[in-house]
Amino acid sequence: YRCDRDGGHVQRLSANYLNDFTPSVMEDGRILYSRWEYVDRPAIPIQSLWTINPDGTGLSGYFGNRVLSPATFMEAHEIPGTGRALCVLTSHNGPCRGAIGIVDPAVGANTQHAISNLTPEVSIGHVDRGDGNDIRGPYESPFPIDGEYFLVSCGGTLLVRDYAGTCQCTILGRAEPLGYYAARPVLARPRPALRSASYRPTAEPWASVLIEDVHKGLAPRGECGRVVQIAVVQEIEKSKFADVSRRAFGFQFPVVSCGATYAPKRVWGFASVESDGSAHFKVPAQVPIYFLALDEHGRAVQRMRSFTHFMPGEQQSCVGCHADRNYVTPNASARPLAALRPAEELTQPEWGVRGFSYPHIVQPVLDQYCVRCHHPQDAQGGVDLCGDRTDFFNVSYETLARQGDPGENPYTSWIPTFNGQEANILQVTPEYWGSPASRLADIVLNGHPDEVGRPRIDVDPLSQRRIFAWIDLNVPYYGTSESNNTDLIGCRQMVPQDLDQVLAQVVARRCVSCHEPPRPTYTRITNVENNSFLLAPLARAAGGTQQCGQPIFATKDDP
């Protein structure tokens, strides 16, 4: 936020749904700050450095948005006259102190060579290894005095050091039990540049984006003409607190997915891409959004795993999709076709602009085309796609997303966000994740052919796009983080508390003579008679599957 010096005229500048923190003003008038985000990323990274204009426009990554270690860059201040920033290098969790370093974005936005550790006794790890969550050091509150010296607090003792590491002076020793922090020199400093307003605010909550060529940055699989649409997606905030002890599927509380996206998603709509790869379209202002580059079927050739935001009336442009802004220059020889027309309004998805809810948007497609062959009494290929609710999700979601190890479902390729999966932030190859890499998408597109190649289904294009969108949004189940059950596991799990004890008694009486059944991954809480632990031992004549061989339960009346 910013305000007048008397505290009036408070204005929000950034639109993060998590945290933006430790801002400082740069020499050119921009604000340098730390940003915490989880756009389809594991739970430990990323807290990187970003810049924004004092009027809330011009959001831009500064350093570290795809760095594993350090996990956090914070308390950053520009060193006068250098274009570099002094900051704390530390872990994702724990105390807000660690090592002190200098980052130089001119060397690269995520490279090891751009980081100079001024406190080498504190290991900061490597940008492409580990998770960055074990950096422990005594340093915090660095502040550059000039181009040679800086102030820093070391365990509460206030020091002056030089950047070369050749001299140090103690200013104030720690006075137990308190220490000295966030010191500022009382001296004249040049006033930062006053940046004139870079946009004309509008009453309408929209901004516009011009992309020169979406195919720039998509090599090796983003050949010209492949991308025909841009999807605009909002990350929706979690608006209600829940205790961390209730977490499930990693650090989800309330649960949104089976360990994929942390945030619910809202698709605002789609923009067209011209024949030269350019696009010019409106986007919602003051909300965190990202873009998906879609092919002719609506599958994501590439995805952003970060978000941006705009002020009402702001006009922003970029060279390409995943193109490095520090090294890729615009094409000066010709104006993009999309620049010759006004920004187009987004075409809204046919399911509406709302939180993307799997049971409301995807399940109706499965009900129409799939459930007649894939239901509990006759789950062909072992695949049940019915919509019965389970303790967290529903049965088809359990099959198409949760089944298997995280991110290794046999039908969908999604990005796991569990701890220990941090290295996947380095994978930015087009079509590596999502619907282009998913067996389910292939089945939908080719009609699910039988043994002789004859299509068994003919899914209409709009229904296809629903399924592709769900996969490319990183398989959300819930369209909201609202929950009235914050006392439950994941703030969602609807299951009788004594179910395990009841099942154990049944197993002891009826099952252990042949085998010890595993605890089912999920439990149906609607149409409970279709749970596998009830169907498998039930006689076929009574509506069961009799997978146990001989009927263990002759009828449903068996006590």
Helix content: 10-25%
Q: Which strand order spans the largest sheet, edge to edge or round the barrel?
A: 1-2-3-4
Number of strands: 21
Helices and strands, in order, run as EEEEEEEEEEEEEEEEEEEHHEEHHHHH
Spell out the blueprint of helices and strands.
Elements: E1 20-25, E2 31-36, E3 47-52, E4 60-63, E5 72-78, E6 85-90, E7 99-103, E8 115-117, E9 139-144, E10 149-154, E11 157-162, E12 168-172, E13 206-211, E14 229-235, E15 265-272, E16 279-284, E17 289-294, E18 300-303, E19 315-318, H1 358-361, H2 363-369, E20 374-375, E21 378-379, H3 395-402, H4 439-446, H5 461-472, H6 499-511, H7 532-535
Parallel strand pairs: 13-19
Antiparallel strand pairs: 1-2, 2-3, 3-4, 5-6, 6-7, 7-8, 9-10, 10-11, 11-12, 13-16, 14-15, 14-17, 17-18, 20-21
